[in-house]
Specification:
Radius of gyration: 15 Å
Number of domains: 1
Strand order of the largest sheet: 1-2
Largest sheet: 2 strands, antiparallel
Mean pLDDT: 84
Distance between the termini: 5 Å
Structural class: mainly alpha
Length: 71
């Protein structure tokens, strides 16, 4: 078992953040693509993109500030 101590990021942490960021990207794209096509306000698309970035940063920070165990 691999342990990622507090205040460090191991390869497993970064892989999980990457996986989660791809999951977070789905809803952002659902809002952003129609915004580009002028079906919904562009500001809503930018809001979704900002939320995606904030979610990814929050996930990275959570992994950095906690002890994580991987098999």
């Amino acid at each position: 078992m691999t342990v990622s101590p507090k205040y460090t990021l191991k390869k497993e942490d970064l892989l999980k953040v990457l996986r989660n960021s791809l999951i977070f990207l789905g809803p952002a794209l659902l809002v952003l693509v129609p915004a580009i096509a002028k079906q919904i306000p562009v500001e809503a698309g930018y809001g979704a993109l900002a939320l995606y970035i904030l979610n990814t940063l929050a996930d990275l920070l959570r992994k950095y500030l906690s002890v994580n165990k991987y098999k």
